[in-house]
Structure to design on (539 residues):
């Protein structure tokens, strides 16, 4: 469904992504794990068109989307849930959700989807008309997910969905990812919280300083010595990551 | 007498509001000052006058044509003077657009002077102006038209921004262009739409002011442009309500100072009042940067 071929992206002279190739099939949840600054978000932003790759090719649904405008990429159904949620604070909850469906023209089905999202996230239904600035971090994350679903994505890219969330809300976010998994949603999940991400995903890639150093089925990566040591095991790193307990 | 002054203030004020709304829309979405906006207004007046002189159209048609014409000029200014300065994914710098729209002032003025000459000309009459007397006050048919049309346009704008899909898209881009793009919103399209809307309102104001003062000239946009800018500072930069109310306040203040103080102090008094308000509330009456 989505395929990257030898993608290089740089900020000025700094090569943040160096020859990354990966692919995601329909219905798969694939995660990219890696430390802060390893280039995870750069990959996401390159795929969604905010950064132009220096070289390489990105293909989505058989179409070459390298260097395409961000809004056109969204129109193809490649939708991002950005890091830090990026809720539009001056718009109401409902307006945020409506903006998620901005490129759709099927008015009737949009309102049906809206009801479905409210069914899934009752908190949002209660606050339909409220300005989103008043929402808690967790509610904002729900809104951000709901808004992306309003686009009827073919592939959902989640950039650090657990970042800055309290443990309880983090559980809820991963519960939603499990639900989406059952509905056969295709997801590219980028996470620092490797433990959580690998438990949710089918396959994973390990990114180090802009290069993929390892790729395998998620359960194998969870058992992999190197991965456990670098991303799951050590107490020091865990503290920085989140409230997650080591394995 | 006082009531009469209020009516006159209202007429002037709501045309100021129309102009200030354009500034505030553009500032809200792009965070820049489009200082050639007064020239777009001036071109609106010229388009209307030319049209009236050659076809004697109905008021509605003249209004529509001046709005559409000004909208096209606004889109052109954005394409030529602002879009080339924007870089994908980066906020627009402050100074370069200021300079390029400053340049647009002269380009547009010179263009109009080349075609129509530099003199002040009498604005052609669309129809016989009638005066209505209601007790102590007299109101002319064109004053009624000006107030009515201005308020309709303001209500229409409010509806568009708050209720329509494209208006919500405008507010989304105003808050965060990157997030808007992530949602599949074509940011360039929204910016174009913003310029078209803002300039269309300026075009309408051009026709209305021309009618109200029976005069138009290539330099009519300069002073009123500065006033439009002052109004959005007063009302709160990028705030729609601020622009509407601020325009009315400035119009009233000017007329009342002419009526009760001295006409030569008109602008001094009006701007003095604005400075006073800003001293008390530095972010403007309605606060800044929210298109709501």
């Amino acid at each position: 469904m989505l395929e990257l071929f030898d993608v290089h992206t740089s900020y000025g002279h700094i090569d943040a992504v160096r020859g990354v190739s990966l692919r995601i099939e329909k219905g798969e949840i694939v995660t990219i794990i890696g430390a802060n600054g390893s280039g995870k978000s750069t990959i996401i932003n390159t795929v969604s068109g905010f950064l132009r790759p220096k070289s390489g090719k990105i293909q989505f649904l058989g179409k070459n989307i390298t260097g395409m405008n961000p809004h056109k990429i969204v129109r193809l159904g490649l939708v991002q849930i950005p890091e830090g949620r990026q809720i539009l604070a001056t718009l109401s909850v409902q307006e945020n959700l409506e903006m998620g469906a901005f490129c759709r023209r099927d008015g009737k089905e949009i309102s049906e989807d809206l009801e479905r999202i409210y069914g899934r996230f009752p908190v949002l239904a209660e606050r339909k008309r409220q300005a989103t600035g008043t929402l808690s971090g967790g509610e904002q994350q729900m809104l951000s997910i709901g808004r992306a679903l309003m686009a009827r994505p073919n592939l959902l890219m989640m950039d650090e969905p657990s970042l800055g969330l309290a443990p309880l809300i983090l559980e809820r976010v991963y519960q939603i990812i499990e639900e989406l998994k059952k509905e056969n949603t295709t997801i590219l999940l980028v996470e620092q919280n490797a433990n959580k991400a690998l438990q949710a995903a089918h396959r994973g890639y390990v990114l180090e300083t802009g290069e993929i150093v390892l790729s395998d089925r998620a359960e194998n990566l969870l058992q992999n010595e190197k991965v456990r040591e670098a991303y799951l095991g050590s107490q020091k790193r865990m503290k920085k990551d989140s409230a997650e307990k080591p394995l | 007498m006082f009531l009469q002054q209020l009516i006159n203030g209202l007429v002037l004020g709501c045309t100021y509001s129309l102009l200030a709304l354009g500034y505030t829309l553009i500032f809200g979405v792009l965070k820049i000052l489009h200082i050639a906006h007064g020239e777009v207004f001036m071109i609106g007046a010229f388009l209307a006058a030319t049209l009236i002189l050659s076809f004697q159209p109905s008021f509605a048609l003249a209004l529509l044509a001046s709005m559409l014409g000004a909208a096209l000029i606004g889109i052109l200014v954005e394409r030529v003077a602002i879009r080339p300065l924007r870089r994908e994914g980066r906020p627009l710098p402050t100074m370069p657009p200021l300079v390029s729209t400053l340049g647009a002032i002269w380009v547009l003025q010179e263009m109009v002077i080349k075609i129509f000459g530099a003199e002040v000309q009498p604005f052609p009459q669309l129809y016989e102006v009638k005066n209505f007397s209601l007790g102590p006050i007299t109101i002319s048919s064109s004053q009624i038209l000006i107030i009515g049309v201005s308020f309709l346009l303001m209500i229409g704008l409010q509806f568009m921004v708050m209720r329509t899909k494209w208006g919500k898209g405008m507010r989304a881009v105003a808050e965060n262009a990157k997030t808007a793009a992530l949602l599949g919103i074509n940011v360039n399209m929204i910016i174009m739409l913003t310029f078209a809307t803002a300039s269309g309102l300026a075009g309408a104001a051009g026709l209305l002011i021309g009618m109200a003062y029976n005069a138009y000239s290539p330099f009519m946009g300069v002073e009123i442009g500065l006033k439009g800018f002052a109004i959005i500072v007063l009302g709160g930069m990028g705030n729609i309500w601020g622009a509407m109310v601020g325009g009315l306040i400035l119009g009233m203040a000017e007329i009342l100072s002419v009526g009760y103080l001295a006409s030569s102090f008109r602008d001094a008094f009006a701007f003095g009042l604005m400075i006073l308000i800003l001293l008390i509330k530095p972010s403007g009456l309605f606060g800044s940067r929210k298109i709501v």
User: Anything to note?
Assistant: The interface with chain A takes residues 88-89, 165, 168-169, 171-172, 174-176, 178-187, 290-292 of chain B (CB under 8 Å). Residues 2-30 of chain B form the longest helix (29 residues).
